[in-house]
Amino acid sequence: MTTDARDGRTIEAAGGVVLRPTVGSTEVLVVHRPRYDDWSLPKGKLDPGEDAATAALREVAEETGVTAILGRELSSATYRVGDRPKRVRWFRMTPESGDPRQRPADHEVALARWVSVHDAAGLLTYGHERAILDECLRTDHPDERGGTTR
Questions:
Q1: Domains of the chain with bracketed CATH
Q2: Long-range contacts from 137-141, C-beta under 8 angstroms, 24+ separation
Q3: Residues 39/125, Cβ–Cβ less than 8 Å
């Protein structure tokens, strides 16, 4: 893990693609972050000494109020944040307990909610997150891809 923003090393982060079946569809858990005014999948930086899987579960719980069960690792996404590379390791997850409607808003996440995977294609701000969702759906629910790769 990298803590010094001046050293140029890769920022390590992890997140979850949390899917739940509904009648006739599948929903994915998304968050709205007021600092960036974006819609994204729950993710965050690793704590010192923390592994990616543990960080992904922790970030999902912190940002959404949902405790999840860890599934398989998906592809990683690498992009730049300012002058530094950032790598997010993504994991497929299934909800175990909790309700995002019960999570109070804070400075990091204004709202967490379930949306259909079809609606997520137009809601998620970042193309690399739409691609991760699409990857997950291609292998989990091939009938529900619904235009998630823009």
A1: 11-144 (3.90.79.10)
A2: 137/26, 140/19, 140/92, 141/19, 141/26, 141/117
A3: yes
pTM of the full predicted structure?
Answer: 0.88
pLDDT digits (tens, 9 = 90+) for 49-83: 999 999 999 999 999 999 999 999 999 999 998 88
Residue 71, CA atoms < 13 Å, CB-side half-sphere:
18
Amino acid at 77: A
Of 28, 49, 35, give the one whose Cα is nearest residue 132: 28
CA angle 105, 107, 108 (to 5 degrees): 90
Residue with the two structure tokens 């992904």? 56
Largest CA distance in the chain: 49
Torsion of CA 72, 57, 119, 150, to 10 degrees: -60
